[in-house]
Design a protein that fits this description.
The protein has helices at residues 3-14, 20-30, 38-47, 54-67, 108-121, 137-141, and strands spanning 70-73, 81-84, 92-96, 102-105, 131-134. It folds into two domains: 3-84, Orthogonal Bundle (Arc Repressor Mutant, subunit A); 92-141, 2-Layer Sandwich (Dna Ligase, domain 1). The strands form two sheets. Strands 4-3-5 form a three-stranded mixed sheet, with no helix packed on it. The chain has a two-stranded antiparallel ribbon with strand order 1-2. By secondary structure, it is of the alpha+beta class.
Length: 142
C-alpha cells in the first residue's frame, strides 16, 4: 500500500482529514531519499513554492510516525531525523560526531546476540534501535 493510502486510512480511523498540506508533505517524503528532518523538509517544500506551514510539517510528521510510515533516527545535533519505513529492512546506524554522516548497517550476528539476550531474560522484544557514535574514516584521519 502506498504511503499516501496508508495515511488516508490512518487519518480516517482517527477522525482526521487528509488535507492538501498533508498530501504535499507525504508526497515530498515519498520522493525523499535517505534521512530527513522537519526543517529541511519545510525549506525544501517552500523553495518549490509550497504553501505548507512549518507547524503542519511537524504535526504531519507526528502522524506519520504514529502510523508507522516513518521512523525516528536520532542525530548528533540532538534534533530528530526521520526515514521512510517502506521497503526498509531493519538496520542500525553509525553516526559521525564530527560531520554528522549516518552509515546504515545490518549485522546478523548482532541481531542473534540481541535475541539470545532477550530470551535469556524472558523478554519479548517488539522493536529496537542501535546507534553507534564515533568518527567516520574521513573525520578520524583529520
Amino acid at each position: 500500500m502506498r504511503e499516501e493510502e496508508k495515511l488516508k486510512k490512518f487519518l480516517k480511523a482517527k477522525g482526521l482529514k487528509f488535507t492538501k498540506e498533508r498530501e504535499d508533505i507525504i508526497r515530498e517524503i515519498e520522493n525523499t531519499e535517505g534521512h530527513f528532518d522537519p526543517d529541511g523538509l519545510f525549506i525544501k517544500m517552500k523553495n518549490r513554492g509550497s504553501k505548507v506551514s512549518r507547524a503542519s510539517v511537524y504535526r504531519t510528521i507526528n502522524l506519520l510516525l504514529e502510523s508507522g510510515i516513518i521512523d525516528v533516527v536520532e542525530n548528533i545535533d540532538r534534533h530528530k531525523h526521520y526515514e521512510k519505513v517502506k521497503d526498509k529492512t531493519h538496520h542500525d546506524h553509525m553516526i559521525c560526531i564530527k560531520c554528522g554522516k549516518v552509515i546504515e548497517f545490518y549485522s546478523p550476528t548482532l541481531e542473534m546476540l540481541q535475541q539470545e539476550l532477550c530470551e535469556k531474560e524472558g523478554f519479548t522484544p517488539t522493536k529496537h534501535s542501535l546507534e553507534i557514535y564515533g568518527y567516520c574514516k574521513q573525520c578520524y584521519k583529520k
